[in-house]
Amino acid sequence: MRIFLPDGKVLEVENIKGKRILDLLPQSREYLVAKVDGKPVDLTYILEGNEEKVEVFDFKSDLGRETYWHTSAHILAQAVKELFPDVKITIGPAIENGFYYDFDLGGKTFTPEDLKKIEERMREIIKRDLPLKREILKKDEAIKLFKNIGEDYKIEILEEIPDEYVSVYRQGDFVDLCRGPHLPSTGYVRAIKILSSSSSYWRGDETREVLQRVYGISFPDKSQLKEYMKKLEEAKARDHRKLGRELDLFSINEDVGPGLILWHPKGATIRMIIEDFWRKEHIKRGYQPVYTPHVGRTKLWEISGHLEYYKENMYPSMKLENVEYYIKPMNCPFHILIYKSRGRSYRDLPIRYAEMGTVYRYERSGVLHGLLRVRGFTQDDAHIFCTPEQVEDEIVKVLDFTLFILKSFGFKDFNIYVSTRPEDSVGSPEMWELATKSLIKAVEKLNLKYSIDEGGGAFYGPKIDVKIKDALGREWQCSTIQFDFNLPERFDITYRDKDG
Ligand SMILES: [Zn+2]
Ligand SMILES: [Zn+2]
């Protein structure tokens, strides 16, 4: 059997039956986790002998980092349980940068001194170099185990797992319900730090228990941690929420509501200049301006399908003289109705409508973030109506236009994703194929690098996502070029072609 190491080396190994992957590797704590025939496993996984391929991962890989941070989360939970035995643990995943763990403190919060103590205890647990041991239990045995130690949240999770068997991980006296994989021992974590704590809700549900979320980060090298902390400081200094306050650009007022932005004169002036630029460039490229209402009758959102598929993101309805209205979460239906307001011929196409359309979407309060995640925002939105023959050309133009706009604001580093058909979708396979192909062709025509997000499209069509990077290298979703097979059908819009 062959073992693929992260540096590209390949090991030929024999007589592997009953051996741990770890025992077949050169001695190095750079190796963190493995995949056996594609399935992620611990390095302590015992081989059965019939495996075909083992891949080993280090901190440079996504799986390596995720595992590293997930084990770090377990170390955090163990530290908290040792210091505060009455605290109940909930869940603690790895995230994009680091990890967190949510704890139930019975309504109390961690003080800065508590966090310092927890961090010290984490270092101690790392020093103990406790092995992480995976155990497979019958579900009812696991429920009994967690009942005995009073971990109610684990029982709630277990009761929702349909499987007959579950896995738990132990390190010292600490035990957690967990799928894994994990590092072989706590000593693999070298540099660890608690970053912050904040309150959260069990399952993100505001009607459930209030929890304390503790965020942390860890690295195999002290210098990496130092560098990360420096970046974080820079990010704090450049945080747009801080700048917005200091420069008197915008504010958010609790009496107005979370996620609803008040633009102050200076911020509004910047916005006006941006909008003027946006308008001028759109007109130049053959877009026509439109304005549409902020509310629409229930009927409209029934036809569009928003009430069926998007209702949880919409503000509740309002009723007046027995007519029910919803505030708009999207501009699309309105643009379609402008198109539909008269007969259209192929000679009219493409038609490109553009609007600075203010929409309202109900986002959970936990995800709101300054100007970046809000409940009311103005989309620089456009809808293009065209024939199948025009599709490719139009996409090239839109993509080129998108990059022009982004570059005008100094963004040079893009990641482009083409998302393809998800399992649940509308529209014929031929339409999906044509649309997806033309998206890819457009990206290639402009000599852009891209990744395919398999099955990541919306149910109504494939799309191109353009993600930008900020000064600190963090990725943000910015522009989307989206096909829509759904609305034209639902609103029954047509055009007269050459043959009438
Ligand atoms: Zn876990
Ligand atoms: Zn739209």
UniProtKB/TrEMBL annotation:
Enzyme category, top tier: ligase
GO biological process: threonyl-tRNA aminoacylation
Pfam families attached to this UniProt entry: tRNA-synt_2b, tRNA_SAD
Keywords: Aminoacyl-tRNA synthetase, ATP-binding, Ligase, Metal-binding, Nucleotide-binding, Protein biosynthesis, RNA-binding, tRNA-binding, Zinc
Reactions catalysed, as given in the entry: tRNA(Thr) + L-threonine + ATP = L-threonyl-tRNA(Thr) + AMP + diphosphate + H(+)
Positions of the Aminoacyl-transfer RNA synthetases class-II family profile domain: 239-500
EC number(s) from the headed UniProt entry: 6.1.1.3
This protein's record includes keyword Plastid: no
GO CC terms: cytoplasm
Keyword match ATP-binding: yes
Gene3D superfamilies listed in its UniProt record: Bira Bifunctional Protein, Domain 2 (3.30.930.10), Threonyl-trna Synthetase, Chain A, domain 2 (3.30.980.10)
Superkingdom of the organism of origin: Bacteria
One function term, GO molecular function aspect: threonine-tRNA ligase activity
InterPro entries: aa-tRNA-synt_IIb, aa-tRNA-synth_II, aa-tRNA-synth_II/BPL/LPL, Thr-tRNA-ligase_IIa, Thr/Ala-tRNA-synth_IIc_edit, ThrRS_core, tRNA_SAD
UniProt record similarity statement: Belongs to the class-II aminoacyl-tRNA synthetase family.
NCBIfam families listed in its UniProt record: thrS (TIGR00418)
Descriptive protein name: Threonine--tRNA ligase
Organism whose genome encodes this protein: candidate division WOR-3 bacterium
